Amino acid sequence: MSCSGSGADPEAAPASAASAPGPAPPVSAPAALPSSTAAENKIPDAVTGYYLNRAGFEASDPRIIRLISLAAQKFISDIANDALQHCKMKGTASGSSRSKSKDRKYTLTMEDLTPALSEYGINVKKPHYFT
Amino acid sequence: MADAAATAGAGGSGTRSGSKQSTNPADNYHLARRRTLQVVVSSLLTEAGFESAEKASVETLTEMLQSYISEIGRSAKSYCEHTARTQPTLSDIVVTLVEMGFNVDTLPAYAKRSQRMVITAPPVTNQPVTPKALTAGQNRPHPPHIPSHFPEFPDPHTYIKTPTYREPVSDYQVLREKAASQRRDVERALTRFMAKTGETQSLFKDDVSTFPLIAARPFTIPYLTALLPSELEMQQMEETDSSEQDEQTDTENLALHISMEDSGAEKENTSVLQQNPSLSGSRNGEENIIDNPYLRPVKKPKIRRKNRHGILLCCPGWS
Lengths: 131, 319
Fold this sequence. Notes:
The structure holds two protein chains of two kinds.
Chain A: H1 29-35, H2 45-55, H3 62-93, E1 107-108, H4 110-118
Helix pairs in contact in A: 3-4
Chain B: E1 5-7, H1 25-48, E2 52-54, H2 55-82, H3 90-99, H4 107-113, H5 172-197, E3 200-202, E4 212-214, H6 224-227, H7 231-247, H8 250-262, H9 266-275, H10 284-289
Antiparallel strand pairs in B: 1-2, 3-4
Helix pairs in contact in B: 1-2, 2-3
């Protein structure tokens, strides 16, 4: 995949992670830029900008910061959805009634989070107790 | 470690990590943003459908969020610099996301979907502003080495102190009036004091306290006070003696002293009168008028003394 050297290039065409050799489809991320307003993002621009600055990333366009915060949000929400699936699987697999018991209160525990994260390649090991 | 479950309410601050941490301003800087991320994580979990979450899992997700953002920034910067640029562009970020395994195609769909929950920004505290009525004077402008977003200097009266001195009154009339009134007050106070503390005589028969007069003390030897010089006169004689020794010769002094001890010749008067201008000038006028030999300043014989500071250490003939 190649990046053009000029400054503003909204029509960049990088390949996706599992792309075949050949012309890659145009990325749809620029379409996300005008639609994403500041009110949608949960993470404030200042907080994202603070962490980006700590990494050495100085953003010229505030829309870039919103894009990054949106990507980070989606990352977390994907993990949360996976953990919810795990939680629901554990609830219904044990044979409890589907009407009321486990439908209301889903609690995110480490037992649900760990397998959800392992699918992303993130392995967490928390100690059960502190000595 | 206790698996404490905490509710992930919308907009709630979620859990607190380590309530016994000591926070200095530098830590507060980081903690504030960390708490914001915790709020975000909590709201995302609520949106996903969780009612509550473990403290450890919220911490884990917060840490992941922070490191994810930092990693995107670092990687995007690296890609940007790899192509000899300094300003990251959109393509750098897209490449970064792809490299981190993020599916960018689903991003617009997610952006449209996540219009459900909005977190209000935390309240911004304003700088305390002194009201216009209380400000006094112009604030000093920032010197060039201080950036403009720093707070302003305080009012100059808080750190500048200018001692002021009142000019003493030099008007002749006012000074004369002041001197006269002070003198009158001092005399009156002194006489009253002596009347109150000493013996008094009264002019009126029945009313004793209204106009008290200081009782006269009859002396046994009335003329003694006329002969003896007062302390002040003796002190002035000391000073004039020491100044005379520099000006005149010893023989002249001796002749004068001998003539004073005779006490009565007329030629003394003229010689003493001629010597008068050399003495202290304040008594010249009086001595010219009152030509009383008993009121003239006494001329003592010249005695060599070590101490000439005006304190009378030994005096000839006085007991």
